[in-house]
Description:
The structure holds 2 protein chains of 2 kinds. By secondary structure, chain A is an alpha+beta fold.
Amino acid sequence: xxxxxxFVPLIVxxxxxxxxxxxxxxxxxxxxxxxxSGEGMTLDCIVDGVKCKGTAEFFTSLxxxxxxxxxxxxxxxxxxVVFTFDPExxxxxxxxxxxxxxxxxxxxTTVQAFKCVSME
Amino acid sequence: xxxRYIRYALLTVSxxxxxxxxxxxxxxxxxxxxxxxxxxxxxxxxxxxxxxxALGPLNLSMLIAVLLLALLAKKSFCGWACPIGFLGELCGxxxxxxNKQKLRPGERLDTTLRMLRYVVLVVALVFTYKAGELIxxxxxxxxxxxxxxxxxxxxxxxxxxxxxxxxxxxxxxxxFCRYLCxxxxxxxxxxxxxxxxxxxxxxKCTNCASCQTACPxxxxxxxxxxxxxxxxxxxxxxxDACPEEGVLSIRAGx
Lengths: 120, 254
């Protein structure tokens, strides 16, 4: 069956747009750290600096032993982090302060590894 | 209107979108759009229900879309949307202007070198699956170019890789796509089955070989009744280059 030349770019566009919208069917985190149990409030953040599994794991390590944090899911490709927390033990502002804190390096200097771009 | 203008317009949009994301203007990482990332993420998803490194659901959904597209219209993604293929093609044109006699390896050497992309595919998947990190990203032109040889690259080895790929792109048409692209290797079996392909009317063809000269992948279209070759990207350069009316056409068929 003969088809017009413009069919090719058309199906390429349809496939790519379809692929873009299909992504919601496969949402899984890059790291998923479960600290406590039970439900809590969620805080959805875009964090500059969460860009791969290594940085995501380092990011979650900042909240190790912090009371009130129940779960941290990171989505490196979207630079996104979702916290589940107990609002009676920790506030969103405290969560933000922890991620934006200066981190000491071996040579004695400090660096800010993460910056919160948005919080919801 | 020449099909190339439409193709280059689409490729420019694709290149522009990736550049826009790479410059940090979007929420998503530019890597999130790479279909090969979907392949690299499969083991991590299967094993732990998590994505490796900087990969995400978009990589997987783009992989599925590109595989379905290959079943329908061969490697159309490569010819119509891949920014690395586009840059390779532009380098090839630039190389052709400087050096009219393009370097074309003999058929036997060319066929052997084309097997390299399967080696790259196996190495990339094994290393990624074992480490859970994209440890070959330091040698991936897509990452090297758009990250500006950034985070997670391999220093002097990354620069050396880029130098080889750039020299190769100027010397041999579609150097990376032809010999090294692991996504191309993934798409090969799907592309062989592609329904939409170029057909040649043998009774009208004068065997002038303009089609092969125009083809970025050197496919001898003038000697085939229909182009089932796995490397065909349905770019339609051969259709535009054919001097005879109605010899080459695009059709759906098995």
